[in-house]
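Lab notebook, bench 4. Still working through the backlog of constructs that have no structural model yet. Next entry is a single chain of 415 residues. Request: give me the structure tokens for it.
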Amino acid sequence: MGRLSRRAFAMAALTTLGTAGDATAAPRGGPAVPPGRRRAADELRGMWLATVANRDWPSRAGLTPAEQRAELLAHLDTAVRRRLNAVFFQVRPTADALWPSPYEPWSQYLTGTQGKDPGWDPLGTAVAEAHARGLELHAWFNPYRIANHTDPTRLVASHPARRHPDWAVPYGGKLYYNPGLPEVRAFVQDAMLDAVRRYQVDGVHFDDYFYPYPVAGQTFDDDAAYAAHGAGFPDRASWRRHNIDRLVTETAARVRKVRPAARFGISPFGVWRNAATDPLGSDTRAGVQTYDDLYADTRTWVRERWIDYICPQVYWNIGFAAADYAKLVPWWAAVAKGTGVRLYVGEALYKAGDPAQPAAWQDPVELSRHLTLAKQYPQVRGHVFFSAKEAAADRIGALARVVADHYQQPAKPPR
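Model written out:
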């Protein structure tokens, strides 16, 4: 989720909901486990570890390498303590890197200065230390976001967006690479795949940002790219969806070639389309639909088996009128059924105990109820919690209740 945090965008989506009344990669997974036969030893239990704007880690820019490392290991230890088995580590938050990349600068969230060497290798350390603890480490990338501002001169002089100013589009107070340019699509894949080639990551993970979330009164200016590359499409929206489809299929094929054991998955906003827009859609009244607003045809990615897993952000409580968890989980289970694509459910741990959230989120049992409900659907193979800071603090004991009710025994992620 131009993000300062997933929380910011989920809150924006919640507001909207409240007012709304080429090469393809087959999945690596086998058939779904029949109802009643799923084993605890075959379940993904994950948490996101966000680095954009120092959301989870490091706690602030400019810590010493030893301090940064200690904080990182503490997050991994939290995952073990909560009986989780996978960490989704954000290693490319804003067209930068948490490893020594030849393509992009070191992230400013490490030292406070973009391009400054932090003196150690966070991604390499995370992979080694996660594996030492029995955790999977999935490298989490944001493909197109460049900066949480619109001033290219604030980027380090060597930044690709300064060397190729025609690649960048300002929108909504942020700066993005233009997904409509083939050269951009090739570059962002090269930049991301460098990490996959260097490190024994267990997965390659995209979040929910493709084309940016819509901002009222603003237009994403891709006129020149559309004029150059949009011939043959019925409209700009179809062309934009094609651009994102190409990113997904090409990345999937390249991941399989570079690191065949790694799985490729995506964590989209939880609503593909509302049923009022498309009869194939969910019984929701969401103000954002990924197909129409982010040009991300998430349902097709699953049905066509382009990805190994889907992890929709179902960040609403059971009974929430505009987007009910109890309606979205079975909808996604039906989409995944028969495909072999793993379905993991993204869970809004950050909402638990937040006084700004509806009453359901003040109940420590709400998240545990989510997992109880999801067990009715054999396509659901696990859950991922947003995010690491809340996994540690567990403000009202919601994650502790999940552990007590559902995670009493260790589990291995599905392979």
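Notes after review: Residues 236-258 form the longest helix (23 residues). The longest strand covers residues 86-92. Flag for follow-up if needed.
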